[in-house]
Amino acid sequence: MEQITTADELNKKYLRDGMWPTIFCNGCGHGVVLEYTLWALEELGWDMDKTVFASGIGCSSRLPGYINADGLHTTHGRAIAFATGIKAADPDLNIIIFTGDGDCAGIGGNHFIHAARRNIDMTVIMINNFIYGMTGGQLAPTAPLGSIATTAPYGNIENPFDICNLACALGANYVARWCVTHPYQPIKSIKEGLQKKGFSLLEFLAPCPTAYGRRNKLGDIKKHWEWYDNNTILIEDYKKIMQYGTEEEKKELKHKFQIGVFQDLQKPGFFELYGNLVNRLQIKENEPKEGKK
Amino acid sequence: MIEVKEDWCKGCNICIERCPVNALEESDHLNRRGVRPPQLKQQNECNYCRLCELLCPDLALTVIPEKEEKKPMKKTNLIPVGGKRR
Fold first, then answer.
1. Average pLDDT rounded to a whole number, residues A15-20
2. Which of A60, A66, A77, A240 has the most CB atoms at less than 10 Å from its CB?
3. Is residue B84 domain-resident?
4. What residue in A sits closest to B8 (Cα-Cα)?
5. Residue pairs between chains A and B whose CB atoms are closer than 8 Å
6. CATH number, domain containing residue B51
7. pLDDT digits (tens, 9 = 90+) for B24-60
8. Could you tell me the residue range of the domain that residue A252 belongs to?
């Protein structure tokens, strides 16, 4: 099979014709994440008949509808629960979940926690735009302190949810956070996450100029995209500055988001362990029984 | 060369802002949505880095590297070869 090199060929191979163009607002980052995922899938050369996409409710959850593959558009926050079921029914399938910050961290937080804890073989692509964009701009649990939303008109006073730290603590196999504004590192990272056995979480910081940027006075699309450049720092640089930097440099980093790969482990996934368990019990069952007669 | 699916473009101008060599501009005609899709400038400075293609949120852009034209060259033998080579 010939390697695809242009976006036009990529579109023809992976996208559903009738669904395009997307419903996303002008300047939204969701389409970019979709494109990165498609490039990663193309580089891996996976069979799309063996790949299933699952999603919950929200802007990000419309993404599987645009891809010409099997997809599941489920109830709010339950994408990971449904995906666990798909994986249990047929462990040969590759599961990719598109979910938003409200869907994954807010409504479906408990499903996320337990899927990560059990290390179920799936790739969760969480698109974080700090707000419930589709339902009208309510405050999401990941929104930074002081951000304005319809349910927080005087500024957010709740501490934001760092979902990558949570996933690291739960022992997920692969945890990374990236910004949509730079293409090459995320594509490589998605590729690694997809290949990884066990739970992998990829968090994307995506701009939402309509619901978040407009209310928080982040300016037009250009300025909003630049905001992500100025407010993120690579985890390696962060560690170096925290170790050797001056007080001023450390103070500057306080409000910045760390991006990069946070965790990369090689633990066995849940269904591998489950298969081993079944084999062990079958062998035990077939052994000639000894004991009292 | 840059191929733009004009009806997919929403006019966010991310391709124009993010281009490292500033090779794109808004075109002078409107598409079906009423926005001006991007086009290459008259003076083509595109270096085919494909950043606009990868960053376009609507997958509307495609960068096609121009094939280098092979100029007909007169070949002179540097080594004297007698007769046909086998």
1. 84
2. A60
3. no
4. A21
5. 67
6. 3.30.70.20
7. 899 888 888 888 999 988 887 888 888 888 999 888 8
8. 7-286
Domain that holds residue B28: 2-63
Structural domain includes residue B18:
yes
B35 within a domain of the structure (yes/no): yes
Residue of B nearest to A6 (CA): B62
- Tally the domains of chain B: 1
Nearest to A28 among B8, B57, B59 (CB): B57
Within 10 angstroms of residue B31's Cβ, the number of other Cβ atoms is 18
Cβ atoms of residues A230 and A222 within 8 Å: no
Average pLDDT of span A260-285: 92
Q: Does A293 reside within a domain?
A: no
Q: Which residue in chain B is spatially nearest to A22 when comparing CA positions? A: B58
Q: Which of B4, B5, B12, B63 to mutate to test the interface with A (most CBs of A within 10 A)?
A: B12
Q: What is the CATH number of the domain that holds A93?
A: 3.40.50.970
Count up the domains in chain A and report the number.
1
Whether A193 maps to a domain, the answer reads yes
A54-87: per-residue pLDDT in tens? 999 988 889 999 999 999 999 998 999 999 999 9
Q: Under DSSP, is residue B53 helix (H, G, I), strand (E, B) or coil? A: helix
Give the model's pLDDT for residue A170: 93
Residue B78's pLDDT is 66
CB-CB under 8 Å, A181 with B62: no
- A7–B56 C-beta distance less than 8 A: yes
Mean of all residue pLDDT scores within chain B:
82
- Residue pLDDT, tens place only, A82-97: 999 999 999 899 999 9
Tell me if B83 is assigned to some domain.
no
